[in-house]
Specification:
The chain has 17 helices and no strands. Helix 1 crosses helix 5, helix 2 packs antiparallel against helix 3 and helix 14 packs antiparallel against helix 15. The N and C termini lie far apart (62 Å).
């Protein structure tokens, strides 16, 4: 076997560092539940190479979703049947398992679609390491297995994402774009952004607690504002989580995309969304495309583009399944799917009438207001999860906007191009 040069050793150490860091983080944060993550990683590493590439995705996808769904149902059994509090470590493990499902199935889809060049299985080296391992098949297979384990367990994305493809991960680790500069400035910016979002969330929560009486005592306008405020609290939590996750990935050297035209380092290779883009969306369909961007792209690829019958309904239905099938999640995602479908039909009928800039701006403003009200209902339903909280939401006047989208979906005819 030829001697491994210095660059190769650096690459291998990076993979080991990311994988071992993920193992340690899993054991510390999940305790005895860490095996919920380790079992599917090991099973997929065995299952993918042994299955034919055309069937690997079906096998891996089915096994992974069955494993994840079993633990989601166990959590519901403890919450709703036994009325017992769920161990926080179990919740962390299941949350990490959901992200792991994205990474494992992303690799299986790459194999099925032939996007992993030069290979049809995980057991073959596909990266820049291959030229250094020529003639050493056993070392090459071990190195590729290390790449896969590092990708599925790497600690910056183990608990918070975001999702990146296997090719992107290898490119980041081996720095194929260009040598990455120090990410200190990018990390500091994201940490400051996270702290700012958390401060805004705390201020909003304090205002809602101080000036909000019982929900039954609120007027129609006050109850609408209360739901909007609660939804914004949840969204700020997501935005700060995404910013912190991106900062952690940047700190580990992941997410560098080269330099801009002005020579500024671009550390936006891994990101789940931009708050400004989301909060200015004027259509529910646009919000759905940009919300939790890497998960939305994964759902579009795994479900929407593969379903021939009712792809939109199947995508939102699967999203409820992937999130855990709590009553609020099922209702929230199904209503969101109905609203997106109705939004397409509304736009088809209204677009020919927008003949002047004034009418376009008016339509955009009204669309923004409707989107905010709709997304507030969806976010609150999904986050509160339980049936009792759904009934509480239903008694507020904001639920009228959900009914409006359902009615429009049934009464507006679909225009065919």
């Amino acid at each position: 076997m030829p001697l491994l040069n210095k660059q190769l050793r650096i690459w291998l150490l990076r993979y080991v560092y990311l994988a071992l860091g993920g193992c340690v983080l899993a054991m510390v944060s999940m305790g005895s539940y860490c095996w919920l993550v380790f079992v599917p990683v090991g099973a997929s590493a065995v299952l993918v190479p042994s299955a034919r590439s055309l069937h690997a995705h079906t096998c891996v996808f089915g096994a992974q979703m069955c494993w994840q769904t079993g633990w989601h149902l166990f959590i519901q059994y403890k919450e709703y049947w036994l009325q017992e509090p769920v161990d926080t470590r179990l919740l962390i493990a299941v949350s990490s398992l959901m992200l792991l499902t994205q990474r494992i199935t992303s690799v299986s889809m790459d194999l099925q679609e032939g996007k992993l060049t030069g290979t049809q299985s995980v057991g073959t080296t596909t990266s820049a390491l291959a030229p250094h391992l020529a003639g050493t098949q056993s070392v090459g297979s071990a190195t590729s297995a290390l790449q896969y384990l590092s990708y599925t367990l790497y600690f910056p994305g183990l608990l918070g994402g975001p999702l990146c493809s296997f090719q992107q991960f290898v490119s980041f680790v081996e720095q194929r774009v260009s040598p990455a500069p120090q990410p200190l400035y990018a990390v500091c910016c994201k940490v400051c952004w996270t702290l700012g979002l958390q401060w805004g969330k705390c201020v909003l929560v304090d205002v809602m607690e101080r000036y909000s009486p019982g929900l039954a005592q609120l007027s129609a306008v006050q109850s609408t504002l209360w739901v909007l405020g609660l939804a914004l609290v949840f969204r700020l939590s997501y935005y700060s989580h995404w910013a912190l996750s991106a900062g952690l990935n940047n700190a580990a050297g992941l997410g560098f995309r080269g330099y801009s035209g002005r020579g500024v380092p671009r550390w936006d290779g891994v990101s789940d969304g931009d708050p400004w883009t989301l909060e200015t969306c004027s259509r529910p369909s646009a919000f759905a495309r940009h919300w939790n961007g890497t998960t939305a792209a994964w759902l579009r690829r795994a479900v929407f583009q593969r379903c021939r019958t009712a792809p939109l309904a199947m995508t939102f239905g699967f999203s409820a399944w992937w999130h855990g099938l709590h009553p609020g999640q099922v209702l929230g995602f199904l209503l969101w799917g109905v609203a997106v479908k109705a939004d397409y039909r509304i736009h088809q009928h209204v677009r020919p009438l927008l003949t002047s800039p004034a009418t376009q701006q008016l339509y955009r403003g009204l669309g923004w207001a409707h989107t905010q009200l709709l997304i507030a209902c969806v976010v609150v339903a999904v986050e509160l999860r339980g049936a009792c909280f759904m009934w509480l939401l239903w008694k507020t006047h904001i639920s009228v906007f959900l009914l409006l989208y359902v009615i429009l979906l049934f009464f507006l005819p679909q225009k065919h191009p």
